[in-house]
């Protein structure tokens, strides 16, 4: 059984478009924010700073999202993150958004460890990998 | 040969993240903006207003994007839009971003015509369809 | 002694610009979000929906902000809201942002109650006013 | 007679809020973008890159804006920039937004030249100053 990382967002006025529903682009920002939260909580440190210092990064390879139902102002969006696939260099996250049990969207977000010096993929180090494995489905 | 709709964006300071490259979420906003431009230019009217008045809309079904190379401050991003697939109710756009010939990303963005009253898919009317067909690959 | 409304924001990757600090525009979004939170918490209902239903709104008259020190990724920004001046139709909020006691910015944000039908200012009703008064400095 | 720097923005779906008008925060982004455009066009180079290389910057001291009338989807917003006050280290821009001659907002935006090493204000160099002076009202 994979461990699930959970975080929550309040749907605000500024997330919504003239149709009165969340502008889809903001869901991608929330997906990325969930990955950011997972990095800092699962790893117990500010991942971005560490990566910047080590001159490595996790650039995004691809992202996709299915939108099932619209979200509205005032909704509490529950985000659930697991790792759908853990490659040699890459992590493919699956992030689901729900409001009161109703699934609103399901996203896939793939990043890969890269040297910022050489711009080439690097194998994920064993100690990092170990912390990721509980989240792999 | 399909017709290609072209539009351009200047990469600004506010598009860029602490890594000094375009934050990926802004690419989705540009893809959506290209579709918006295409609607207003290909149809010769303000599509959104018309849709709102007719109580129909084109909600997004799914979106995906492959990111090939980062974009930087000052880049002139050329966006190219074609229709990859035109369904009974749905339009699947393919939008490519290039800087000086180098492909930066390729997105798929699928929308479907829907009644805002019944929340059900509607067939794309023949006159609308006719204006879309030149862009189908 | 005025009551202070407090709320908090986590500074995220997406808030930050290529200089590695919060892009100032995001502070205005947080100020507006603090006002939104205050409305819903101080009034015990979803203010925006109610306003939309009653065909009234609180459009922004003016906003200003002094920026004292930059904010960084990972900062916990504490927002403090009070009412600097309560007019017949208008509310002028004062919102301060602090990180660990250090003042980062101080904003003034003035809104006025308006009929969405006539586009004219309306006096703030007595029951609304009563709930606002504890926050007036 | 001061020279005026002019630039234009198309009001898009993504700029607008559930009330169907431009979310005020986006005006601040446009004001900042107008300053960015002015820097690159008035100085004939990519200002940000140069500043980053020289380890100097123009952080924002304060910003304020009066909002007169709402902007709508499809509006062509004309932005006009002049320098309201040119100090030893600081530049205070005045940026006005108009649609078809109607004034929508008027902003003040003050920045100051600063060393990124020492975090202290620097006098604006004479050659920079010379290029700024035509825009001072």
Write the layout of secondary structure elements.
The structure is a homotetramer of 137-residue chains.
Chain A: E1 5-10, H1 24-43, H2 47-54, E2 56-57, E3 60-67, E4 76-86, E5 90-99, E6 102-112, E7 114-115, H3 126-132
Antiparallel strand pairs in A: 1-4, 2-7, 3-6, 4-5, 5-6
Rounded to an integer in angstroms, the radius of gyration calculated over CA atoms of chain A is: 16 Å
What is the distance, rounded to the nearest whole angstrom, between the alpha carbons of the first and last residues of chain A?
A: 7 Å
Report the principal-axis shape of chain A: elongated
Kindly state the percentage of residues in helix of chain A.
Answer: 25-40%
Mean pLDDT of chain A: 91
Report on this model:
Four copies of one chain form a homotetramer. With 137 residues, chain A is of the alpha+beta class. Chain A contains three helices and seven strands. In chain A, the strands form two sheets. A five-stranded antiparallel sheet of chain A has the order 1-4-5-6-3, covered by helices on one side. Chain A is elongated, with a radius of gyration of 16 Å. The model of chain A has no long low-confidence stretch (mean pLDDT 91). Chain B binds chain D through residues 12-14, 29, 32-33, 36, 40, 46, 48-49, 73-74, and chain D through 12-14, 29, 32-33, 36, 40, 46, 48-49, 73-74. Strand 3 of chain A pairs antiparallel with strand 3 (60-67) of chain B.
């Amino acid at each position: 059984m994979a461990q699930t990382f959970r975080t929550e967002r309040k749907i605000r006025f500024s997330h919504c478009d003239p149709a009165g529903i969340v502008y889809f682009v903001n869901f991608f920002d929330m997906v990325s924010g969930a990955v950011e939260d997972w990095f800092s909580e699962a790893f117990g440190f500010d991942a971005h700073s560490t990566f910047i210092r080590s001159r490595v990064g996790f650039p995004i390879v691809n992202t996709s999202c299915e939108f099932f139902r619209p979200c509205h102002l005032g909704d509490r969006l529950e985000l659930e993150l697991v790792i759908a696939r853990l490659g040699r260099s890459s992590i493919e996250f699956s992030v689901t958004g729900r409001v009161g049990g109703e699934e609103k969207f399901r996203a896939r977000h793939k990043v890969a460890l890269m040297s910022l010096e050489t711009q080439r993929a690097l194998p994920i180090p064993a100690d990092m990998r170990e912390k990721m494995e509980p989240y792999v489905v």
